[in-house]
Amino acid sequence: MTSRTASDELVHLDVADGIATICLDSPANRNALSAQLRRELLGHLDAALTDDAVRVIVLTHTGRVFCAGMDLKEARGSDAQGQGVNEFPAILERIWSSPKPVVARLTGPARAGGVGLVAACDIAVAAHETTFAFSEVRIGVVPAVISVTVLPRLLPRAAHELFLTGETFDAARAAAIGLINSAVPADALDTEVDRFVQALRLGGPAALAGTKELLRRARPASMAEDFAQMQELSARYFASAEGQEGIRAFTEKRSPSWAVSA
Q: Are 16 and 68 in contact (CB under 8 A)?
């Protein structure tokens, strides 16, 4: 049996200067979410999340398409019901709940499951030419799994329109409805991604993880309970080693240790 080599990979991981870049590299298949690509993507996400040197994760791609969604060739026949049933929800959950910020970088279209990946990321930047579509209904299926990450991002009216019609929309519309953060000219894409990455590296790693938990939490029924929980959380981070280092750095007019190491 022939062993796998790096050139056989459909997803690559590169770590440099605290940034883990995960690149979808199956351009012949429009970076469709095949079983191999899903498996490798999940593995590289886990590697980045467990690497203490990694501060920020960037999800990007080769080729003209970011991700065309599920590999429909693999979804035909008796195994169709199990298509991605385990790996894909796990991939979306890893990105969504990652204690490290995840930034999506798109130079080309995202469809169906590919849009779910974009929505799971904390920050998403796309070139103006990028297009998006929830194309599921047009092939007789439902955007069920991706709705878990997409619906918290989208304006409700836009979600109804775009989920039900399956129409293609551009990056400017995606930014306007909350799917992405920025739509920029293609030649400014890397500068915009780097702007976000460098800003994220200024945050304390524990504080960033805690803030992501804060953003995901379900709100209590009463405001009094909400304030009580948030007061406890605030006090805990003020008293933490990272919080005390940040306060000392501010008063001493220097960069905190995590910013220096970055």
A: no
